[in-house]
C-alpha cells in the first residue's frame, strides 16, 4: 500500500487532475488499499479532485461513498454500526 500511495501522491503533487476513478473488485482486501491510497494521497497533497470510488460486485459497478471508504479503516466503528451501537 505504501508504494501505491506514494505513487499517487507523487502524481497529484506534480500535475493538476480534475477527477480520479477507482474501480476495484468488491471483497478484495488488496483492492481496498487502492481506495485508501487515493484518499491518503489527497490528504497529504492538499489536492481535492473529484473521486469516484466504485466496486464490481456480481458483474455490476456500484458507486461507494467516501464515508464508506473511511469507515472501512475503522473496524471498531464498523463493528459498532453492525451491532447497533452507533458509530
Tell me about this structure.
The chain has 87 residues and is an alpha+beta fold. It has one domain. Helices cover 51% and strands 23% of the residues. It contains four helices and three strands, in the order αβαββαα. A three-stranded mixed β-sheet has the order 1-2-3. A hairpin with a 2-residue loop joins β2 (50-57) and β3. α1 (2-14) runs parallel beside α2 (29-45). The longest helix is centred in the middle third of the chain and has 17 residues, at 29-45. The two termini are 26 Å apart.
Task: Provide a short characterization of the protein structure.
This protein is an alpha+beta fold.
Query: What Rg do the Cα atoms give?
Result: 14 Å
The total strand number stands at 3
Q: List segments where confidence is low: pLDDT < 50 over at least 5 consecutive residues.
A: none
Strand % is 15-25%
SSE ordering: HEHEEHH
Number of helices, counting only DSSP H or I runs of 4 residues or more: 4
- Distance from first to last alpha carbon: 26 Å
Question: How many independent structural domains?
Answer: 1
> Which strands sit side by side, in order, in the main sheet?
1-2-3
Q: Can you summarize the main beta sheet?
A: 3 strands, mixed
Helix coverage percent? 40-55%
Oligomer: single chain
Structural class, from secondary structure content? Answer: alpha+beta
Q: Sum up the overall morphology in one term.
A: globular
Mean pLDDT metric: 92
